Amino acid sequence: MAAGQTKRLLKSKSGLRIVPTKDCDGSPFELAEPPWALDQESSHCVQCHHKFDFLTRRHHCRRCGYVYCGICCGQRLPLQRMCFVDPVRVCQNCQPATLRENDFYDRHLHVLLRGAKFMASQQDSSSSMPCTCKLTSSHRLIEVKGSDVLDVPVLSVNSFRMLRGSPGDTNSSLNGVVLDYGSNAMLQLEVIPGNDATCAVQWLVALYKALKMISDTHA
């Protein structure tokens, strides 16, 4: 959950969650709880197709809401995108995505919040300027602060392209990103060679994971 929000404890049939008091304050990385498949309409496990009976009980995956047997939905994992307090049941189908998301929260989110230095240019500009880019504490804006301040809403990013090396260079390391956002706006960020380059590359990796996570969710 984004820092600085007013929070409340919400109890649902899926478990306890700490959520923003106002829905509009939620992080764009968060996921809403899915509706649960009805027990009376679920006679078999979605994955192994074993029939439910007195010994084989139904279990709902907290990430997708479908019904599984205890073997196919027996592992409990943190569901940080849904703000659960404790680890919850996650089916085998949802485990890979859940682990990737948890890796983002554990290793990459703080990198975006910390920020990094780049050279920035926009579509209507022929020059670039040094700036510091970071994710705001609400997680909703990418703040580009140079001589002026530009705020790019995370959910307004329509597409993104990671830049690697330079023309004619075989070096495949990241050195920038192009963001297309809003109705017709573009922002290009390029790594500045020097001592801060490593931090900038780490920030680009974290940004890629954040935007990919959002785009995969809405695909």
Automatic annotation (TrEMBL):
<dbReference type="Pfam" id="PF01363">
    <property type="entry name" value="FYVE"/>
</dbReference>
<keyword id="KW-0863">Zinc-finger</keyword>
<keyword id="KW-0862">Zinc</keyword>
<dbReference type="InterPro" id="IPR017455">
    <property type="entry name" value="Znf_FYVE-rel"/>
</dbReference>
<dbReference type="InterPro" id="IPR000306">
    <property type="entry name" value="Znf_FYVE"/>
</dbReference>
<dbReference type="Pfam" id="PF16696">
    <property type="entry name" value="ZFYVE21_C"/>
</dbReference>
<dbReference type="InterPro" id="IPR052113">
    <property type="entry name" value="FYVE-type_Zinc_Finger"/>
</dbReference>
<keyword id="KW-0479">Metal-binding</keyword>
<dbReference type="GO" id="GO:0008270">
    <property type="term" value="F:zinc ion binding"/>
</dbReference>
<protein>
    <submittedName>
        <fullName>Putative smad anchor for receptor activation</fullName>
    </submittedName>
</protein>
<dbReference type="InterPro" id="IPR038632">
    <property type="entry name" value="ZFYVE21_C_sf"/>
</dbReference>
<dbReference type="InterPro" id="IPR032031">
    <property type="entry name" value="ZFYVE21_C"/>
</dbReference>
<dbReference type="InterPro" id="IPR011011">
    <property type="entry name" value="Znf_FYVE_PHD"/>
</dbReference>
<keyword id="KW-0675">Receptor</keyword>
<feature type="domain" description="FYVE-type">
    <location>
        <begin position="39"/>
        <end position="94"/>
    </location>
</feature>
<dbReference type="InterPro" id="IPR013083">
    <property type="entry name" value="Znf_RING/FYVE/PHD"/>
</dbReference>
